[in-house]
């Protein structure tokens, strides 16, 4: 017996789930990026010359086939595209959700949702603000809050994190990142349809914890050890 | 026991509603939650007030007609339907807040009654399989793997009550949708329409104004039938396949 397709002209690519798939894909691009970025930062423990050499090396990957900073720009464009997609989808879904549940309950108990899952949106805004500041700080603007030189990556890093309040800002951002990744990792796997059993769901949750702790914890080491004087000029 | 009830009262779909407080005495711990409301309504009738409207049908936990947000939990503090919730779950002197399901796709019709026909329209858009009518087919002619049959049957226990939507901060019906997709998509009989079904049902879900899922899991915690979150993963996977297949 032949059956007919149920609908004609339905656009699956315009559905809420498609938006979520976009968020999951761009989120995974971010996770891979921050993982590598975090690992690279640990070069600061190897001292001035090793760190600056690493900073220079990123710019010469792929040369002479690619121009200087060529590979870096490929990565940057990928990240910018992902960020625009991720934030646009987040805003669209946020608006949709507010329309779908406009009336608050007089009393509402949260039974199983984690703090991280409930703070994805405001946490995401925190991350966005942080990303803007972070780029001004180290990439686009190169702002040295203690007034020192900005042409030496290692010294800019040490000067920045010797400033206690800047270290605090970075640590708060890492807390936000850890929370976002704790739920985001699990959520991305679920959105991609990879958690169809209890076991795979449990594994995805464990992976969420691991990714959050490794990345947020790893990033926090350099600011902390600089503040405590282990990493210095 | 003696209770203080705070109940949402709303004259009709277009009227503005408000919380009203009632004192109710003589509640037995053996009463079901709905019998307790019946008692309140008798009291309201004798005093000439309009009784509180609420939904119920089977009162056996199988039809999915009863609803109610009780003290901030869909179907109240136990993992069951409101009709199967008993007053022994409460203690003398308790204050109980009772609200309707809140979602713009489930508009309030009166007091605690909401319109859940959005679910019916989702089902109409693919929540079935095509089968020949006539004499019943031989039961064992289509083999079904046991694990898939079990998963399908578990998902099929969804009674369409809407507690998942009520508990979801995004007003998403993903758990309901996932239950139907898993129920029909796991069995051989559901294969021919599998991907057009998910495309169509998701489109209707979105069209009804339900929100997107953020995988926070409040739905599964509220579900009286303990439908697990993995049905949403299945829904997402089937939709992903539908996209690949060009729906
Ligand atoms: C730029 C600011 C950002 C905003 C506004 C934002 C916002 C959001 C929102 C609202 C969600 C959906 C939450 C949910 O589904 O429960 C989400 C998911 C996610 N975010 Fe972000 N985020 C941002 C940056 C990041 C960054 C920097 C990363 C990675 C390091 C990231 C990784 C993820 C992942 C993996 C998901 C899960 C996708 C899914 O639910 O399927 N996000 N984000
Ligand atoms: S999934 Fe559970 S909560 Fe949602 S409609 Fe079905 S039975 Fe009710
Ligand atoms: S009245 Fe039928 S399930 Fe509660």
TrEMBL record, chain A:
GO cellular component: membrane
InterPro entries named among the record's database cross-references: Cytochrome_b-558, SQR/QFR_C/D
Keywords: Membrane, Transmembrane, Transmembrane helix
Keyword Transmembrane: yes
SUPFAM superfamilies per record: Fumarate reductase respiratory complex transmembrane subunits
Statement: the UniProt record of this protein carries the keyword Acetylation: no
NCBIfam families for this protein: sdhC_b558_fam (TIGR02046)
Name of the protein in question: Succinate dehydrogenase / fumarate reductase cytochrome b subunit
Organism name: Nocardioides terrae
UniProtKB/TrEMBL annotation, chain B:
Family: Belongs to the succinate dehydrogenase/fumarate reductase iron-sulfur protein family.
Gene3D superfamilies (UniProt xref): 3.10.20.30, Alpha-helical ferredoxin
Domain 4Fe-4S ferredoxin-type: 149-178
Signal peptide start-end: none
Cofactor(s) of this protein: [3Fe-4S] cluster; [2Fe-2S] cluster; [4Fe-4S] cluster
Keywords: 2Fe-2S, 3Fe-4S, 4Fe-4S, Iron, Iron-sulfur, Metal-binding, Oxidoreductase, Tricarboxylic acid cycle
Name of the protein described by the UniProt record: succinate dehydrogenase
Enzyme Commission number: 1.3.5.1
GO molecular function, one term: 3 iron, 4 sulfur cluster binding
Record has Iron-sulfur as a keyword: yes
SUPFAM superfamilies, per the entry: 2Fe-2S ferredoxin-like (SSF54292), alpha-helical ferredoxin (SSF46548)
Lineage of producing organism: Bacteria, Bacillati, Actinomycetota, Actinomycetes, Propionibacteriales
Gene Ontology biological process terms, A to Z: respiratory electron transport chain; tricarboxylic acid cycle
């Amino acid at each position: 017996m032949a059956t007919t397709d149920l609908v004609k002209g339905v656009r699956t690519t315009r559905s809420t789930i498609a938006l979520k798939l976009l968020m999951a894909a761009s989120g995974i691009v971010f996770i891979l990026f921050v993982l590598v970025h975090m690992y690279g930062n640990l070069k600061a423990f190897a001292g001035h010359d090793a760190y600056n050499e690493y900073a220079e090396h990123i710019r010469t990957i792929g040369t002479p086939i690619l121009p200087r900073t060529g590979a870096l720009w490929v990565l940057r464009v990928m990240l910018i595209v992902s960020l625009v997609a991720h934030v646009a989808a987040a805003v669209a879904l946020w608006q949709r959700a507010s329309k779908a549940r406009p009336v608050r309950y007089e009393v509402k108990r949260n039974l199983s949702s984690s703090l991280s899952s409930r703070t994805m949106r405001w946490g995401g805004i925190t991350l966005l603000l942080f990303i803007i500041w972070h780029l001004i700080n180290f990439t686009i603007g190169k702002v040295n809050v203690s007034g020192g030189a900005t042409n030496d990556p290692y010294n800019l890093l040490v000067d920045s994190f010797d400033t206690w309040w800047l270290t605090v800002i970075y640590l708060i951002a890492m807390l936000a990142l850890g929370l976002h990744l704790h739920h985001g990792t699990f959520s991305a796997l679920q959105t991609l349809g990879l958690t169809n059993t209890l076991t795979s769901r449990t594994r995805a949750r464990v992976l969420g914890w691991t990714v959050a702790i490794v990345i947020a914890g790893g990033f926090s080491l350099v600011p902390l050890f600089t503040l405590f004087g282990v990493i210095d000029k | 026991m003696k209770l203080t009830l705070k109940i949402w009262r709303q004259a009709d779909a277009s009227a503005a509603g408000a919380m009203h407080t009632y004192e109710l005495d003589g509640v037995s711990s053996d009463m079901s939650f709905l019998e307790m409301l019946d008692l309140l309504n008798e009291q309201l009738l004798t005093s000439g007030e309009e009784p509180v409207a609420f939904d119920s049908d089977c009162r056996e936990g199988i039809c999915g007609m009863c609803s109610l947000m009780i003290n901030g939990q869909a179907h109240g503090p136990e993992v069951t339907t409101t009709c199967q919730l008993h007053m022994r779950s409460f203690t003398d002197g308790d204050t109980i807040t009772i609200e309707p399901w809140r979602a713009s796709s489930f508009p309030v019709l009166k007091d605690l009654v909401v319109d859940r026909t959005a679910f019916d329209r989702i089902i109409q858009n693919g929540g079935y399989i095509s089968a020949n009518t006539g004499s019943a087919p031989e039961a064992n002619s289509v083999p079904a793997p046991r694990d898939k049959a079990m998963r399908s049957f578990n998902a099929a226990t969804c009674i369409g009550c809407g507690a998942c939507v009520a508990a979801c901060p995004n007003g998403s019906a993903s758990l309901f949708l996932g239950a139907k997709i898993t129920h029909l998509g796991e069995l051989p009989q559901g294969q021919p329409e599998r991907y057009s079904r998910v495309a169509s049902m998701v489109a209707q879900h979105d069209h009804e104004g339900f929100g997107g899922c953020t995988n926070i899991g409040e739905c599964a915690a509220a579900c009286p039938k303990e439908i697990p979150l993995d049905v949403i993963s299945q829904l997402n996977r089937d939709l992903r396949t539908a996209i690949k297949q060009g729906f």
